[in-house]
Each structure stands twice: as structure tokens, then as C-alpha cells.
Amino acid sequence: MHENHEKLDRLGRAILSSARNEIYLNMRFLDIALSGLDYAMNLNTPTVGTDGFSIQFNPRHLIELYQQDLVLLNRVYLHMLLHCLLRHPLNREGREEDRWNLACDIAVESILDSIDNRCLNLLQSNLREDTYADLKEEVPVLTAEAVYRWLGQEKWDYAAQFALIREFRRDDHRFWPPDEQDNRNQNQPENRPGEGEDDSDRRQELEDKWRQLSEKTQTNLETFFADHGDQAGDILQSLTIENRERYDYRQFLRRFVTAREEMRVDQDTFDYAYYALGLELYGDIPLIEPLEYRESRKIRDFVIVVDTSDSCSDGVIQRFLEETRSVLSAEELFFENANLHIIQADAGVQMDTVVHSARELEALCQDFRVRGLGGTDFRPAFDYVNRLVEEGELTDLKGLLYFTDGFGTFPERKPDYDVAFVFFREDYQAPETPPWAIRVVLGPEELEELPS
């Protein structure tokens, strides 16, 4: 019995090594990533899966794949590797588990189907082709997050959902780390290496490991293997999206506060010991009076331009404004009698609403109506703001924040104030901006975090 167990273990490892070598010979840009997974036989799974550290395999399943078609074996190996490179096991973050698992499988299989390589090529079923066609009508890039949203919009009956799972699922996700927000902890795998380690440390180790491997693989594709486009398929695009710089919009907005003196007791510089000593020695004469002024980092003059061209949806604009209001109000970033201009512009300035307090900004957000829906040109808004500065309407303008999802014509010269373009792009791409402008790209995932 023990000898048979060892024999199956050796056979399973040999089959996986064969698949890894085949993938390496055909896609050398994956050389570093292919070294990221060890092998471990695990008879608790009927198929094969990964926890990010090793491939947990049932040898009988591997033998069946090997006998049936080597392409199937190669695809399931790369399927699991792509899950890790794209950090799917770690990115559920409160999402519904079954839908997230299916979304990850569809996203990974779409990448495999985009690769023109004999070691992975299979005829696509009608269901698979129809699914991709339906997705691409609504989703510019088939990331797991985008597919997850799409699956949530569709009215799936049990039979349709089961058909998708049967078509796209290739590995066992029970070995993925449980979501940190899921107290049920139902997906905890048995016989995991390093069992007993702190879960947060293990997650961080996994995140660090695959972020490094993912970034190195992306660098490989962008440099040494830049001419391997057909062999890479959509891998580079997916890695670029996953490895992009994420932005915390709250932190970003704080960069546009300005330091001014405000009439307010500065408790930080007030020493009660000297104050009490003066009262004790001289009666009603304290030695030190509290300072009447302190420096506060708050907004005095600020401009937010909202792109209301035809390509911007009302919902996206509303959520952006609501988050801006939330940040400014929660952190008390308004001076008394502040001048905050909310400008709606498409190919021209459509409306300028001035608010002077957090309460007025809240009222504006609740009753906001989009004006415009034309083309996109950034210059009229800048011309309008420059005129307000010249006329003395904005005497202490710290910066201008331009929220847009489109492409427009930029001013030729840098204005006398800071400028940031916040691009919302479902394809995660942003146009080149002038060197004097700060550019921030918010994808759908970042926008999901804003209040609805």
C-alpha cells in the first residue's frame, strides 16, 4: 500500500514536470513564474488545484488527462499558474465565492484561448464562443473583476450557471486562502504546508511572492520577449492591469489642501504648567496666553471640473462627486466661506456652481443634474478658470481637479495652479497628459469602493 502511494506520487510529479517543460519550451517568458509552484499529492481533491505555494494533485486525474490529450494537461497547468500571477486566490475581498470562482475561471480560460500556440490550442465550443461574444459587448477587458460584475447582472438559472461552470472550471479552488472577511472559514484546505502559521502572515507571503513573479513576467514580455505577441496572447495586457498602480482617491484629494492661518486656539503649543504657575504666583496673570492662530491645511479656493460629455454616465459622475464631498466633509477640509467651484464641461463650460461649505456641497450632490452630453475639449474649462483668477474671483487657487473618462485637447501652457486629471477608464488606459499635469487612472474596481 505504501509503495503504491509512493509510485502514484512519483508518477503525478513526472506528469506535472512534463507539462511544465512543454510550456517552458513554447513560452520562455514564463520561465520565472513556472518555478513558483512545487508539487504535493493530495487525495482529498478529485482533480488538481493550487494554494499558491504548490500544486495539490490527485494522480489519477493527471493520468486521465495525460492519456486523453497532452494539451488538456498543459492548459490546466497554465490555468492554475495564471490564477496565481493575477492573484485571483487573494482578491475575493467580500465577493460572493461561487460567482468569483466562476469569474476567475472564465477570465483565465479567455487568456488561454487568446494564445496561438500548439501546446494549448483546442477547438472552442459554441457555449464558449457565445460567452466571449456576450462579454465583449459590455466588458472592454475580460478581467476577473469585470466578468464578476457581468455575471452579477445576468439572470442565470441553475442550468445555465452549471453549464458555465462545467465549461470553464478546470481546477479545484478549495485550496485558495479563505477571504479575510469570511468568518466561516469554509475553504480551509487540509494538509497545507506551513499549517499553523498566522493566516495574515501567510497571505502576505503569498501576495509578495506572486506580485514579484507577476512583475518579473510582465518585464520579460515588455523587453526580452516583446516580439512574442501571438505566443503571449492577452497575458501581457492582463498582467499590466493587475500590476498597475492603485490609487486611494481619498489620499490623493488631500494633496490639494492649502495651508492658511485660521482663528483657532492652538492646543498643541499651549503649556498648562506655565499657565498654572503664573496664576499661582501672580493671581490672575498667566505667564503664557494660548495662541489665537494656528496653521490649518484646508481648502480656500478649489475647482472641480466634471466631464459631462456623452461618454460619461450620470452614475459615475454622481459617485465621484459624492466621494469628493465625503472626503472634504469628514476631514473638515473647508475654511469658512470657502470658494469651491463645481464646473460642468463637455466641449464648453455648461455650468458653474459655487459652494461655500460642506452643507452646500452635500445639497448639490443630492440634487445634481448633468448638463452637456456633447464632445470633449479640456481647454474651455481652463480658459474659464483662468478668467476667474484674473478677475479676482479665485485669489488663493490651490488646484484644479478634472474628472473625465475621455480624450480631449489639453491646454498648451501650464496654468499657475496645480492640475490633476482623474481618468475613469473601464479599459484601464489613459491618454498621454502634458508633463505639468498629474494623471490618475481609476478603474472599475476603484470606483466600486466609492459610495453608491
Describe the structure.
The structure is a single chain. The protein is an alpha/beta fold. It is built from 17 helices and 10 strands. The strands form 2 sheets. Strands 4, 5, 6, 7, 8, 9 and 10 form a 7-stranded mixed beta sheet that branches. Strands 1-3-2 form a 3-stranded mixed beta sheet. Strand 6 (334-345) and strand 7 form a beta hairpin. Mean pLDDT is 82; it is low at 183-189, 191-196 and 258-266.
Task: Show the helix and strand layout.
Blueprint (H helix, E strand, L loop, with lengths): L1 H25 L4 H4 L3 E4 L6 E3 L3 E4 L1 H10 L1 H16 L11 H18 L11 H13 L5 H10 L4 H11 L30 H24 L6 H4 L2 H8 L6 H5 L4 E6 L8 H11 L10 E15 L6 H17 L3 E12 L3 E7 L2 H9 L12 H12 L6 E8 L13 E7 L13 E5 L1 H5 L4
Parallel strand pairs: 1-3, 5-6, 5-8, 8-9, 9-10
Antiparallel strand pairs: 2-3, 4-5, 6-7
Helix pairs in contact: 1-3, 1-4, 4-5, 5-7, 9-11, 14-15
Low-confidence stretches: 183-189, 191-196, 258-266
Q: How many independent structural domains?
A: 2
Average pLDDT reading: 82
Roughly how much helix do the residues carry, as a percent range? Answer: 40-55%
Q: How many H/I helices?
A: 17
Question: Measured on Cα atoms, how large is the radius of gyration?
Answer: 28 Å
Beta content comes to 15-25%
* Biggest beta sheet attributes: 7 strands, mixed
SSE string? HHEEEHHHHHHHHHHEHEHEEHHEEEH
User: Helix/strand/pairing class, anyone?
Assistant: alpha/beta
C-alpha geometry: elongated
Distance between the termini: 59 Å
Work out the number of β strands. Answer: 10
